[in-house]
Structures are given as structure tokens and as C-alpha cells.
Write a structure and sequence with these properties.
Elements: E1 8-13, H1 19-31, E2 35-40, H2 50-57, H3 75-81, E3 85-91, H4 93-100, H5 107-114, E4 122-126, H6 130-134, H7 136-147, E5 151-152, E6 156-159, E7 165-169, H8 173-184, E8 193-198, E9 203-206, E10 209-211, H9 218-229, E11 233-238, E12 250-253, H10 257-267, E13 273-276, E14 283-285, E15 306-308, H11 312-317, H12 320-323, E16 328-335, H13 339-350, E17 354-359, H14 360-363, E18 368-375, E19 378-386, H15 387-401
Parallel strand pairs: 1-2, 1-3, 3-4, 4-5, 8-11, 8-13, 11-12, 13-16, 16-17
Antiparallel strand pairs: 6-7, 9-10, 14-15, 17-18, 18-19
Bound molecules: cytidine-5'-triphosphate.
Cytidine-5'-triphosphate (CTP) binds at residues 197, 257, 276, 278-280, 282, 309, 311-313, 331-334, 346.
Length: 404
């Protein structure tokens, strides 16, 4: 997906080892369809050359307010007026202090000061040593820059170039890309608190064996990400899957259906929207053996008895908050045939206003899917697309239903 097509980004680089990540970021922005104008301070050129940044962005780099290439000799005005956003990555402690004071003695700071505040947002990706980040001066400056309207992104924690360990590392290129995409997303779920279940569950037979299914969790994770980008607070209750947690989403890992029910019920009281995408195992072994079940030499397999798992969606949909409409519940239906009829019947059985049908065997583990949205009025199809694209369409559709 070209998630940043038609966006023009000014990518500013200031002095810091994290400049090497800016090269990767520049490439990622271009790959997502953005046009990128790189502007570098003198200090950043101690870490990476304009040649590299020009090659990756496909545009000549600017580094001086006296650049005669601009016919009016006003690079700071021209470059800032055409931008959809200015992203400074890495943003050094010194540059943060400079922005705070509205100083403008180099092209990048001049552009930040000269940009139209209401049209050109400023995003900063700080990068510095942990002591510099923790210093009251930096924290004070960051708080003031936020108050002045800049978006100061989080820093990561970990091993730093100086050999120390702590907060202050710049986010990775992919994380910065996610932040920028989220920044441009319409905030259609602002103020909502979304709870999502995702992935399979695992029902233990003994300590080394269990029953599970082929759900990858990709659809649920994509929905959690899209909800977060749309401005919601998001809790994601995930069965055993090996997927990265979307940025900004709070993840709660669980294993069995009973664990998933407990985690979901604990989070439901603050939720305003519940989306049940998990492929919850319908049955679990009646008893899970404490030790590994051994072959007894008779040639007969052990007899396993199963009991039905609680229905998480139906349980949540029966809560008074859901009944009163304070908590909007959305179910999924994994079917292998007769999608429309099965999804309609399931919607009524689970007593939810919206049920999203999909063909299980055709989607489990895949990166794309097709969805059928079934409500009391009828059905609507979301044509085959990536799970990422479908998740965004579904979130937009749900936001309309919530009147956002
Ligand atoms: N679901 C749930 N708890 C369960 C079973 C299902 O919360 N124990 C939820 C799923 O997350 C999904 C919806 O109910 O949102 C439908 O799940 P699905 O597996 O399609 O349906 P089942 O209820 O299991 O019905 P059947 O197996 O008869 O198709």
C-alpha cells in the first residue's frame, strides 16, 4: 500500500549517531509514496553525507539558508510552504533547545519558525544520551514544545552508542513510519476505548500438548492498529501468536479461551467498542493432565473428553453496558460455506449489532481477505484486499455507526 502517496515530507536531520536510521527512514517514506525533501544541519553532516540522502530521496539536499538555487533566495519559505509535515529525525537535545527559543540561525530551525503553524505540523524524533534526555532542561523544553503544538515522539530505551543503557534512543525507521502514517489518519475513533480479541487459543491436554487452530491473528492485529491510528485507546487480548504489537496498542497475552474470557471481562468495563476477531477454540479437554501423558503399551490412544468453552463474545454482548448501547459489540464469523446465511444466523444468536463474516480456510494465515458486514438491515461486502486495508475500512465503517 502507498500509505503516504501525495504527501510531501520535509525530513530534517540534526547531529546524532541516529542519522544512520534517517537513511532507512527516507527510503521507507519514498517506498510508501511520499516525496521527501531532506534538509540537513551542519552537525548532521558529521554523521551522514548529503550524497546519501540525495540518492535515497531523489532530490538535492538543502543545508543553507543562503542557497542560491531558490530564485527568491528564500528556501525557508518555499520549502516549508510545500510540506505536509516537517519531521526532524534525529532531533538532538541542542536542536530541541533551539526550537524552544524560536532561534533561526540555520535553514532547518528557520523553516520550523517560518512554517504556517496551522498548516504544517512539526514532528520531532528525539535522539540523545540518556542523561541528556533525562535532564530537567530537556524535559522542560520537550513539555514546552508540546504546548507550542509540536508532536514530540517517544524515545526508545536500550543500549546507546556511547555504551550506556537507558532512554533516549531514536525510534527505528519502521516505528517512525508507523507514527507518521498514524499522524495523518483521520481521528474517527477519538475518545473511544477499543477492546480487541485476536489470534487462536490453545487448550492444553497436558504440559506439552494442546489443541489450537490455524488463526494467525493478523486481522485482529490490523484492526487494533487501525483503531489506534483512528485515535482510540486500544487494548488487544491476544492468543499465542508471533506478531509484533502495533505501536500505541496495549497488549495482553493469553493462552486458553478461559484466560481470554478473564482478560476480556477485566477490560470490558472501560471499553466502548468490542471487536471479537479471535478464533476461540470451541472445546477444551475436560481435564488437563499435570504431567505428560505416556503411552501405556496397550496400543490404545488415551480417551480425551472435551467440554465447551465459554462464548466470550456472547458473554460480553450480554453485559448491561452492551445491552444499553454503551459498549458496541462486533463479532467475526469464520465460515467454510454459506457465508451470508451463517453470518446472519450467528449475528442473531450472539445478539450483536454487527457481525463480520469471512471464509476461514481462505483467510487464516493469509495477508489478504474479503469481508461481509452483516447487520439488521442487510449485508455489505468489503472486496478482497490486504488485511491492513480492510481493517481501516472496517474501522471507518464502525466509526460511522458510532456517529463519529
Ligand atoms: N467467539 C467467542 N468465544 C467463543 C467462540 C467464538 O468470543 N468461545 C467469537 C469469535 O471471536 C467471533 C464469533 O464469536 O467473533 C464467532 O466465532 P466463530 O468461531 O465463527 O463461531 P462459533 O461461535 O464458534 O460458532 P460455530 O463454531 O458454530 O461456527
Amino acid at each position: 500500500m502507498n500509505e503516504l502517496s501525495a504527501k510531501h515530507i520535509v525530513l530534517g536531520l540534526t547531529g546524532g549517531v541516529a542519522c544512520f536510521k534517517a537513511a532507512e527512514l527516507c527510503r521507507a517514506l519514498v517506498k510508501e509514496g511520499a516525496t521527501v525533501q531532506v534538509v540537513m544541519t551542519a552537525a548532521s553532516q558529521q554523521f551522514i553525507t548529503p550524497v546519501t540522502m540525495q540518492a535515497l530521496s531523489g532530490r538535492a539536499v538543502y543545508d543553507s539558508q543562503w542557497d542560491a538555487r531558490e530564485s527568491n533566495n528564500m528556501a525557508h519559505i518555499n520549502l516549508s510552504r510545500e510540506a505536509d509535515a516537517i519531521l526532524i529525525a534525529p532531533c538532538s537535545a541542542d536542536f530541541i533547545a533551539k526550537l524552544l527559543h524560536g532561534r533561526a540561525d540555520d535553514l532547518l530551525s528557520l523553516m520550523c519558525l517560518a512554517r504556517p503553524l496551522d498548516k504544517v505540523p512539526l514532528l520531532l524524533a528525539p535522539a540523545m544520551n540518556r542523561e541528556m534526555w533525562a535532564h530537567p532542561a530537556t524535559q522542560r523544553n520537550v513539555a514546552q514544545l508540546r504546548a507550542d503544538g509540536a508532536t514530540v515522539l517517544d524515545v526508545a530505551s536500550g543500549e546507546q552508542a556511547c555504551g550506556e543503557t537507558g532512554d533516549g534512543r531514536m525510534l527505528e525507521a519502521d516505528e517512525l513510519l508507523q507514527e507518521l502514517i498514524a499522524f495523518f489518519s483521520p481521528k474517527s475513533l477519538a475518545g473511544q476505548h477499543v477492546l480487541v480479541t485476536a489470534g487462536p487459543t490453545y487448550e492444553a491436554i497436558d504440559p506439552v500438548r494442546g489443541v489450537t487452530n490455524l488463526s494467525s491473528g493478523k486481522m485482529g492485529f490490523a484492526i487494533a492498529r487501525a483503531a489506534c491510528e483512528a485515535g482510540a485507546t486500544v487494548d488487544l487480548v491476544a492468543g499465542p501468536v508471533a506478531l509484533a504489537t502495533p505501536r500505541g496498542v496495549t497488549r495482553h497475552d493469553v493462552r486458553s479461551a478461559c484466560d481470554m474470557l478473564d482478560a476480556t471481562l477485566a477490560l470490558a468495563p472501560s471499553a466502548t467498542l468490542f471487536i471479537a476477531t479471535a478464533a476461540v477454540a470451541d472445546w477444551r479437554p475436560a481435564a488437563s493432565a499435570e504431567h505428560k501423558i505416556k503411552k501405556d503399551g496397550s496400543g490404545q490412544p488415551p480417551e480425551l473428553r472435551f467440554v465447551e468453552n465459554p462464548d466470550i463474545l456472547a458473554t460480553v454482548a450480554a453485559l448491561p453496558r452492551a445491552q444499553s448501547g454503551e459498549l458496541f459489540c462486533v463479532g467475526f464469523a469464520a465460515e467454510s460455506q454459506d457465508l451470508l446465511a451463517n453470518a446472519q444466523a450467528k449475528r442473531e444468536r450472539k445478539k450483536v449489532p454487527l457481525l463480520v463474516g469471512n471464509i476461514g480456510p481462505a483467510t487464516f494465515g493469509q495477508d489478504d481477505n474479503a469481508l461481509l458486514l452483516v447487520d439488521a438491515q442487510g449485508a455489505k461486502e468489503l472486496a478482497r484486499a490486504s488485511k491492513r486495508a480492510l481493517a481501516r475500512q472496517l474501522i471507518a465503517d464502525i466509526a460511522r455507526r458510532l456517529g463519529n
